[in-house]
Design brief:
The complex is a heterodimer of chains A (524) and B (237). Chain A is mainly alpha-helical and 524 residues long. Helix content of chain A is 76%, strand content 0%. Chain A has two domains: 227 residues, no CATH class; 217 residues, no CATH class. Chain A is built from 23 helices and no strands. Chain B has one domain: Rossmann fold (3-Layer(aba) Sandwich). In chain B, 31% of the residues lie in helices and 26% in strands. Chain B contains seven helices and ten strands. In chain B, the strands form two sheets. A six-stranded mixed beta sheet of chain B has the order 6-7-8-3-9-10, with helices on both faces. In chain B, 47% of the residues are buried. The chains are: A mainly alpha (524), B alpha/beta (237).
Chain lengths: 524, 237
């Protein structure tokens, strides 16, 4: 009867989710858009098959890349889970299930089953890489699905392993530090191994990285390496390797579950803080407040704004907030985006600057959206402070510029070395990237001006993506037209960057001016 | 000091406020009371200049959306408006700079009155909800507004802070400020109000003045429950 309560809960939740899905036609539109974009990716991949210039790259690069991705995501999730025990439970679970007479092991398995469904959705974004993976590595859609599955399952393992480890060490700061340090040491050791191999490689860094990424030290990394090895084994037809690593994963995970179920330790207390934190975040989102990416323990350090009068106080306040939000001068997520872009430039280094620039401008869509402006709109001060609305708008956006300039330099100085670019091309790329930052900021302001907070998170993101593409069109058209009219005036890449920058800035300025009264009201 | 004339606020077809008119003079305390969903917060947000509306609202004779009016308004929102990454003292510095105020030590006086001075170096994230609410109040009062609007100010406060806030209401009244307080907690408004507006379904269902002439035989509480529970058809308009 007691275990039936959990299966009833699980069944009812899934059923209600499906019913709510059907009751909200807008969600069906999201699915249609998703399928449409996916179809576009598939068609794009198929269309490029017959390209005469198509070069199929070494498949070991793909399997190595997969292993690196799985290990990085495992490490990030595991370290995050070590801080608070992970977020397997919601507050409703804590309030209703924990005090109930249901066996805590049953509750644990109930949470694990829920989590599997959640994590399966996480890997979906990989499906959109079909075009590039198919064209470069001749990967089929089945292979891509396998990569998605490996990614999702690896994330699930990282969360489960973190939760179990947390229950063992949560009552001792010393043990927590020890495990955290040990894990970081293991990751750094692996990174050093890969780095040394990359430097030693005789056939260039890509081949060396691919070779190191498929080597045993990488494949033996717990769970992530094993899942990578299993997926890689299936993809390359090495079924023995796949079977061995799948069996290893299954055995260790079963042992982990058995240890968790038999553990005398009460995990309820350990997951409480994270459940509360998730609940607070959900409440904040429901109330239209973007959750602050504040560290768990804020290091106050130097205090005071020091400067600013009137609207400019927002700019100096944002600088203080940025300093406290991260120990690094750039946001952690932006740093990851930066590293991904630099890594991408390695793979397309024969194609010149433009492919890297296009990729960086695409990734930038997400990094710009993480600025402070949207959060500022959820507080009343920006509307209440007696300053002209346009002035407040400009100063509230200004914080993004130094951050974006720094990030642009962090991306393009290494990229310039990798691609062997002249200094002027590097500067043009930095300025071009900055112009896209301003364009995307203007898009955010425009969306706020038109829709305010009425869009859901998914709809808001889709509208933002669509607007970004639309607003970038003048620059793209200008670049194409100038190329057609003056084909050999200046190098193609530099001309394209100049045209994009020249078009982006006035488009953004016009949009900002048209939205100058945005801050007169908290609604549109 | 605060004039609200025929204000209607609609969300699509739903009228959150319908044709509301009232005023709060210098040195007066007005309260808006009503059940949840009566439209109290909506009219408060309209006055604070956060929402669009039909009608007219003036503060000290200025349109409430003007810069001049904003200098005169202090607004304490229902949800404490606190920046997680700024310390308590930095909140006060930010408001002082944004409002172009002199550094005359009033920020410290306010923090001291609300027992927040010892938390001056704590980031907003680490404050309890009650402390966040006290900080939100300090921020709203720092520029010495002439019209102060409180939206459910007692929620989350400890008894000491509630007592201090009530003392502050009296102080603001003495200083000649117009004070408007929205609440659904009848016992929190006690007897320091000059006018009480009972709201139902977006409109004023009744207005009671705290004067000898308008004393009547019904207490505010009796009137409130008559309106909200028993005889809505007999509500005086």
């Amino acid at each position: 009867m007691k275990s039936n309560a959990l299966s009833y809960l699980l069944r009812t939740r899934i059923r209600n989710q499906l019913v709510s899905f059907l009751k909200k036609p807008v969600r069906l539109i999201y699915v249609a858009v998703f399928i449409g974009l996916l179809a576009l990716t598939l068609v794009g991949g198929k269309a490029g098959e017959s390209d005469a210039d198509r070069v199929i790259r070494d498949f070991s690069e793909l399997t190595a890349g997969l292993n690196y991705l799985l290990i990085i995501m495992f490490a990030v999730n595991f370290l995050s889970g070590l801080k608070n025990g992970g977020s397997f439970f919601k507050m409703s679970d804590v309030n209703f299930l924990f005090p109930s007479p249901i066996n805590k092991r049953s509750v644990l398995f109930y949470a694990l089953i829920q989590q599997i469904w959640t994590t399966l959705l996480i890997g979906v974004f990989i499906l959109f890489q079909y075009t590039s993976l198919h064209l470069n590595y001749n990967l089929g859609f089945g292979g891509l699905l396998l990569i998605c599955l490996a990614y999702s399952v690896s994330v699930f393992f990282s969360q489960t392993a973190a939760m179990f480890t947390y229950t063992l060490i949560s009552d001792s700061d010393r043990n927590r530090r020890l495990v955290k340090t040990g894990f970081i040491f293991l990751v750094l050791l692996l990174a050093a191994y890969v780095g040394v191999n990359a430097l030693r490689g005789r056939n260039g860094p890509i081949e060396a990285l691919a070779s190191a990424g498929n080597s045993f030290p990488v494949l033996l990394f717990p769970f992530a390496g094993w899942m990578g090895a299993a997926a890689g084994g299936v993809l390359t037809g090495n079924y023995l390797q796949a079977t061995i690593f799948l069996l290893l994963t299954g055995a260790v995970f079963t042992a982990l579950l058995a240890a968790m179920a038999r553990s005398k330790r009460e995990y309820y207390e350990d997951v409480l803080a994270s459940a509360e934190s998730v609940q607070n975040m959900m409440n904040a989102v429901r109330d239209g407040i973007a959750p602050e990416a504040a560290p768990r323990n804020i290091r106050v350090g130097r205090t005071g704004l020091g400067k600013g009068e009137g609207a400019s106080a927002f700019f100096y306040k944002h600088l203080v907030e940025n300093r406290r939000a991260s120990k690094l001068p750039v946001r952690p997520a932006s740093l990851i985006f930066t590293l991904i872009t630099i890594g991408f430039s390695f793979f397309v280094r024969d194609g010149g600057l433009l492919p890297v620039f296009v990729f960086s401008a695409y990734i930038q869509i997400f990094s710009v959206a993480m600025g402070r402006f949207n959060r500022e709109l959820t507080k009343p001060y920006i509307y209440l402070i007696p300053e002209p609305p346009f002035k407040k708008l400009l100063f509230a956006l200004a914080e993004s510029l130094p951050t974006e300039l720094l990030e642009s330099a962090l991306v393009y100085i290494p990229v310039a070395f990798i691609l062997g670019l002249p200094a002027y091309a590097c500067i043009l790329a930095i300025l071009g990237r900055l112009s896209f930052s301003i364009l995307y900021l203007a898009a955010i302001v425009m969306i706020e001006r038109i829709w305010g907070g009425t869009l859901s998170k998914v709809a808001g993101m889709l509208v933002y993506l669509f607007c970004d593409i639309l607003l970038a069109l003048p620059g793209i058209i200008l670049a194409i037209v100038s190329r057609l009219m003056w084909p050999a005036a200046i190098p193609a890449d530099a001309a394209a960057l100049l045209c994009l920058t020249a078009a982006n800035i006035p488009v953004a300025a016009l949009l900002l001016y048209l939205s100058r009264n945005l801050l007169r009201y908290a609604e549109t | 000091m605060l004039e609200v004339e025929h204000v209607t606020k609609k969300y699509g077809k739903l009228a959150a406020n319908s044709d509301i008119s009232f005023s709060v003079g210098e040195g007066q305390v007005a309260v808006l009371i009503g059940p949840n969903g009566a439209g109290k917060s909506t009219i408060i947000k309209c006055i604070a200049g956060l929402l669009r509306f039909e009608g007219r609202i003036t503060v000290g004779g200025y349109d409430n959306r003007s810069t001049e009016a904003k200098r005169l308004i202090g607004y304490v929102p229902e949800m404490p408006a606190v920046y997680e990454l700024l310390t308590v003292a930095e909140h006060m510095e930010f408001i002082r700079r944004a409002y172009r105020l002199p550094d005359d030590g009033y920020d410290k006086q306010l923090l001291e009155r609300f027992e927040m001075l010892e938390n001056a170096d704590k980031p907003g994230k680490t404050l309890s909800k009650g402390m966040q609410q006290k900080l939100s109040i300090c921020c709203a009062l720092l520029h010495r507004p002439r019209v102060v609007i409180f939206d459910e100010p007692m929620v989350g406060l400890d008894p000491h802070a509630i007592k201090e806030l009530k003392t502050h209401f009296a102080g603001l009244k003495e200083q000649g400020c117009a004070v408007l307080i929205s609440t659904h907690m009848l016992d929190s408004v006690e007897n320091y109000w000059d006018a009480a507006h009972i709201m139902m379904k977006g409109s004023f269902a009744a207005t009671k003045l705290n004067t000898a002439e308008d004393g009547g035989d019904k207490s505010l509480e009796t009137l409130f429950f008559e309106i909200t529970e028993n005889r809505p058809s007999e509500v005086p308009q």
